[in-house]
Amino acid sequence: MITKTVADVADALHGIQNGMTVMVGGFGLSGIPENAIAELVRLEVKNLTCISNNAGVDDFGLGLLLQKKQIHTMIASYVGENTLFEQQMISGELEVILTPQGTLAEKCRAAQMGIPAFYTPAGYGTEVAEGKETREFDGKQFVLETAYKADFALVKAWKGDEAGNLIFRGTARNFNPLMCGAATITVAEVEELLPAGALNPNEIHVPGIFVNRIFKGIRFEKRIEQRTVQPK
Amino acid sequence: MITKTVADVADALHGIQNGMTVMVGGFGLSGIPENAIAELVRLEVKNLTCISNNAGVDDFGLGLLLQKKQIHTMIASYVGENTLFEQQMISGELEVILTPQGTLAEKCRAAQMGIPAFYTPAGYGTEVAEGKETREFDGKQFVLETAYKADFALVKAWKGDEAGNLIFRGTARNFNPLMCGAATITVAEVEELLPAGALNPNEIHVPGIFVNRIFKGIRFEKRIEQRTVQPK
Amino acid sequence: MALDKNHIAKRIAQELQSGYYVNLGIGIPTLVANYVPPGLEIEFQSENGILGMGPFPVEGQEDPDLINAGKQTITALPGASFFDSSTSFGMIRGQHVDLTVLGAMEVSERGDIANWKIPGKLVKGMGGAMDLVASAKNIIVAMMQVNRSGESKLVSHCSLPLTGVACVKRIVTELAVFDIVKEGFLLVERAPGETIETIQNATAGTLIVPDQIPEMRFSL
Amino acid sequence: MALDKNHIAKRIAQELQSGYYVNLGIGIPTLVANYVPPGLEIEFQSENGILGMGPFPVEGQEDPDLINAGKQTITALPGASFFDSSTSFGMIRGQHVDLTVLGAMEVSERGDIANWKIPGKLVKGMGGAMDLVASAKNIIVAMMQVNRSGESKLVSHCSLPLTGVACVKRIVTELAVFDIVKEGFLLVERAPGETIETIQNATAGTLIVPDQIPEMRFSL
User: Edge-to-edge, what's the strand order for the sheet holding D99-102?
Assistant: First the structure.
C-alpha cells in the first residue's frame, strides 16, 4: 500500500506558488474543499488561475480568495451570486473564461485520463466555439475541446483512507472525482480519514492512485446556499 | 421512478435480430452475461457483430455463439484461449477487428456519453492507426478514435434494482458499466434484483437511466478460467 | 384571461410521457415538477449529479450534500442515484435524458436559443445550458412571450449571443404553444381567450397560422 | 552461469521505488511481484480493474469475481479498489501508473517494441499492451535475449508489426541490462560471468559498450 496521508492542510499544500493553476472541486458551496481554500487565503498565494464550476459567494468558498484578490483568472461555467466577482470582472482585475458545465467536467476528466482532446456538441455555433475546430460526425456538428491541466487539484470527499481512496456523499460529489489526477498534485480533504482496508474496495469512487496527499479537514461549515424546505 | 424490470431473459432480448451489433460485457469469463448469451444461442440469431473484450472459451461465454456460427464479426482486444475462434478466423468465416483494450473501453464510454470521437496515444505508429487521423498535442502523437455504438448491450451486474440501477462486484465490473447506454437497448442481468430504494444511491455504479431492461438471471455458473491458488 | 407561469408549467407537464427522464431549468421550468400527471413514471435529473430528485426536504431535514443545480436543498426518491458531473453530462450529451425544459431570452424561427448573455450587462455564465441545448432530443422552452421592454422574444434571428443553434422543438408561453417548423413558428395552441392578433403582435419572427388552432386545455 | 527468468525478475525488482504503481505483464514480468524489496510501498495494478492486487488466494478462497488481466484468481490487499476498464486505462493513459514491465518478441534500438502479432501465425490480439506502451512513463522489457530459433530479439528495426514506437526505456535479459539511448542499446550491466562477446553476439542492433560494465547484483 502506498501511503498518501499528510499531517495537515499546510503539508497538503506544500509547494503551492503564486501564478499556479488550481482546480477546486464543488458545485456552488456543496463539496468545496473548505480547509484548502482557507489555507490558500492564509498563505496569500496570488495570481492564481482557478478552475472551478463556480466562484463561491462573497464571504465563502472561492469568494474568500476574491476578497484578497488572489485570483487572476477564473475558469468556470457559472459565476452568479457573487458581487465581489462582478466588481473585479467589470474593473478588469479578474479575467474570466466561461466554459459550458459539461465541457468543463469532461475537460477535467480528459486530463485525468490522459485524453488530450475530445469532441462535444456543446457550444457549437456559439462564441464558445470561436477559434476552435469543429467537425461533423453522423450529420451533427461538434467542437474539439482539449484537456484542462492544473498544478494543484483541491478536492473534498466524505470518507477517505490512507491509500488515498475516496468516497463522496450525495451531490457533494460533482466535479471532485474528475479533478483527481488532473493536476500534478491532487490534495484531498476528507471528513473521515480511515486506515487502509476500512473502505469496501467495491464502493470507492476515486482510487488512491489519483490522489497524492490526503488529510482530515479540521473544519467543515458546509454552508447551504439556497435553503428550500417544505413546512413540517 | 421509471421501472425497468422485465420478467425474464426472453423479454429482455425481445427485438434482437440477425445482423445486429451486440456489445457483451465481461473480461475473460468474469462478469459475462451468461443468461443473455444462453438466450442468444436459443434464439439462433445469426450474423452478429459482437463487441466484447474477449471471445470466451470453446464451451463457455461467447464461445457458445461461435459453436453455432452466430458471430460474423468480432471486435475485441484479445481472443486467445479459444480454438473454435482460431478455426473460424483462419477459415475466413469470422471477421476479426482487434482494438487496443483501453481504446475499446473508451470507445464504449464515448458512445454512452455522447462523445463522437477522442484522441488516444494507443496504437500510434502501429497498424491500428492505419487509415486513422493522427495529431500532435504537447509534442506527443495521438490517434483519433470514434465511438462504438450497438443495437443491444448485454451486461451483467451483481445487484440491481427496479429502476435499473446497477452495482458490480470486484473485477467482474470491467467493461460492463461502459456498455450501459452505448446501445439502443441495454439489457442488464443481475444476481440480486431489489426494489427501488434498497440500494444506497451513493453506491450505485451505473444509474438506471443507462439501462433499459433488467432481470434476475436464473443461472450463473461463474466459471473460473485460470484457477491459481496458494497451498493452505 | 392571461395565463401565468404556473399555467405555462401545467401545459408543459402535459408533454411528459411515462418513462421520461427530464431536466428542468431554473425559473418556470422548475414549476413543471408540481404538475406531473398522476400515474406517470417520470424521473427528474439535476445536472449537478442526481437522478430521481424529489421535493424540497421537510424543515429541519436540509442536507448541504443534497442540492439541485439551482443550489436548492432537495431530497432523493427511492431509486435515486448520485454521480459525478461528467457522468451527469454524459446522460445529457448521450441523449439519455428525454426532455429538457428551459427558459430563454430569445428563440429564433429556426430554433436557435439565446439565454445566457446580454452584451454590456453582467455575464453570469452558461452553466449547463449549452450542453443541454446541444444534446437533448427534445427541448421545450418555457417563457413569457415578451420581455420587460415589451419586445417579442420570438424573433427571426437572435440578436443576443446564442446558447445553441436549431435545437428548440416547442415553445410554451402565456399566449400560445408553438412548434419550430421549417417555415418558422407554427401556432399549435392558443391560451384560452387569446386572439390570433394578440399572438401575432407578440411574435416578431415568422408566424404560421393554420386554419384550426385549438385552445390549450388544463385538465389538471 | 546463465540467468533464468527468476533472475530477470529479481533484477527488475531492483528498479522498484517506494510509491510506485506498477503494471506487470504476463510471463516473466509477473514474477517481479515475488521479489519486491521489503519496506517499499508498492501497489500493483491489473488493467482489468484492480489496484492493490495481492497474491493468489489460499486454496478454497478463489473468487470468480476477482481475477487479474491474465484471468488468474487473485486477492485484494487492504487499500485496494475496483473500477471499470475505462478508469483502469485512464490510470495508464494518464501516466498515473509509474512503471510497466512487459515481455517482447522484438525491441529496436530506438525503443520500438513488437509483442503482439506474428504475420501468418495466429493473432491473439494486443489486449492492453498498446495502451500500456503508448502511455507509460517508464517501460521495462523483461525477456530472453534470443528467440527459439536463436535469433536476437534486440534488433536495428523491428520486423514484426509494432506494438508501440520509441517507448521502451530499459531491457533486462538473461545476459544483460540495456538502456535505450540515442545511439542504440547501451550496455548497462552484464549477467555474472557473461562476456561482452556473448552479449554482442546476441544483439542484432547497435550495441554501445562503455568502458566499465558492472555485473548485475542480486542482493535478495
Answer: D75-82, D50-54, D42-46, D20-24, D99-102, D139-142, D170-172, D176-181, D184-190, D207-208
CA–CA dist A104, A111 (Å, integer)? 11
Q: Which chain A residues are Cβ-neighbours of B110 within 8 angstroms?
A: 118
Spatial distance between the Cα atoms of C76 and C66, rounded to a whole number of angstroms: 8
Whether ipTM > 0.90 holds is: yes
Contact B117 A137 (CB under 8 A): yes
- C131 to chain B, any CB pair closer than 8 A? The answer is no
* C-alpha cell of residue C137: 432530443
Query: Could you give the CA distance from residue B85 to residue B66 in angstroms, rounded to a whole number?
Result: 7
Buried/exposed A66-90: b ≥16 CB within 10 Å, e otherwise: beeebbeebbbbbbebbebbbebbe
Distance CA B144, CA C91 (A): 23
Give the three-class secondary structure for C169. coil
- Sequence letter at residue A190: V
Q: Are C126 and A78 in contact (CB under 8 A)?
A: yes
**Cα Rg, chain B, nearest whole Å:** 18
H or E element in which residue D77 lies? strand D75-82
Report the gap between the CA of C191 and the closest CA in chain B (Å).
32
Q: B208 to chain C: which residues are within 8 Å by CB?
A: 43, 51, 79, 81
Helix axes C85-93, B101-113, angle to 10 degrees: 70
Neighbours of D173 (CB within 10 A): 26
Residue A125 grid cell? 455555433
pLDDT of residue D220: 47
Residues contacting D197, CB < 8 A, separation 6+: none
CA distances in angstroms from C39 to C36, C46, C80, listed in the order given:
9, 22, 18
User: Within chain B, where are the H helices?
Assistant: 9-12, 34-43, 63-67, 83-90, 101-113, 176-179
Distance between CA atoms of residues A148 and A105, nearest Å: 9
C-alpha closest to that of B157 among B114, B99, B211: B211
- Active-site residue (options: D41, D43, D47, D106): D47
| Angle at the Cα of B216 from the Cα atoms of B211 and B217, rounded to 5 degrees | 110
Q: What is the pTM of this model?
A: 0.97
Going residue by residue through chain D (220 aa), what tens digit of pLDDT does each one get? 679 999 999 999 999 999 999 999 998 999 999 999 999 999 999 999 999 999 999 999 999 999 999 999 999 999 999 999 999 999 999 999 999 999 999 999 999 999 999 988 878 899 999 999 999 889 999 999 999 999 999 999 999 999 999 999 999 999 999 999 999 999 999 999 999 999 999 999 999 999 999 999 986 4
Which residues of A have a CB under 8 Å from any CB of D? 1-3, 111-115, 161-163, 165, 181, 195-197, 201-202, 204, 207-210
* Separation of alpha carbons A163 and A178, rounded Å: 18
Cβ-defined contact of C84 to A106 (cutoff 8 Å): no
Taking CB atoms and an 8 Å cutoff, what residues of chain A touch C60?
229, 232
Q: Cα–chain-centroid distance for residue B164?
A: 17
CB burial class (10 A; 0-12, 13-18, 19+) of residue B147? buried
Is A142 an interface residue toward B (CB < 8 Å)?
yes
CB B190 within 8 A of CB B6: no
Active site residue D109: no
| Residue in B111, A214, A206, A49 with CA at minimum distance from that of residue D94 | A206
